[in-house]
């Protein structure tokens, strides 16, 4: 289902450089957006605190972008046979990252489900909390180690696909094992997603019968559901599971390239974050001196309108009821 192999060895049609630069641009845009979002979570104490598994997931999404950009950073993206060392490093990191990312998405849905059922007081803590945060990285280390062993023992299996912008390990057994791992994690994620939908539906129905307001926000449920479906499709399309259909085409690669930007758009578009950014923008505009104004008037104007963004922090400190992606999930 892909383009015919061109004279340059790619399956990118007539404009392989343009196609790849579009993919890299999407990845870089996602990288910048996710960095900005993490800085907002870190520095903006005024926004409502989220679950740590969400922070962990966004961090992993950010870490994945430079991995996929290795050939772009090194200028080797226009060759089907990049230097062995670069290709091996990317394959090791990439194969470890994929299951780590999809498992962190699973733990995000699982923790959301548990918080919805038990409430914020009984949310994961202690050893179980650190386990949810650490397991994706442990998974990464195990898979990356196995990838490195295969790549070092069989250098000929380290290759770049003609349909993609990254290097992988071309080994059927290894690919099948990795695919089944991601399929099982994806299946568990979907089960938790369905369970979350059922629990939310029952709670909202009970609240309507009792005539009391529900603190559950349906838009947040849809936000999580849409993203997980989007990410799971993107990761699975680039596995061997659908390789004979559309897994080895530009469709799958394009899907993968847009995932980081999708993470940013979905989780940065929440109301308290948008309000915080809007507040910062308004404060910045107030502090901008008026052109051609008297210098003394400029100093007075800046002094009177320069709260050093404290107003943004105080304004957001009275946060509304937390959403399902936040720590204090409440059931009405």
From TrEMBL:
- Asked if the record carries the keyword Transmembrane helix, the reply is yes
Is Transmembrane helix tagged as a keyword? yes
The highest taxon in the source lineage is: Eukaryota
Q: Which residues cross the membrane?
A: 20-44, 53-73, 100-118, 130-154, 174-200, 221-239, 245-268
What keywords is this UniProt entry annotated with?
Membrane, Transmembrane, Transmembrane helix
Q: What is this protein called?
A: G-protein coupled receptors family 1 profile domain-containing protein
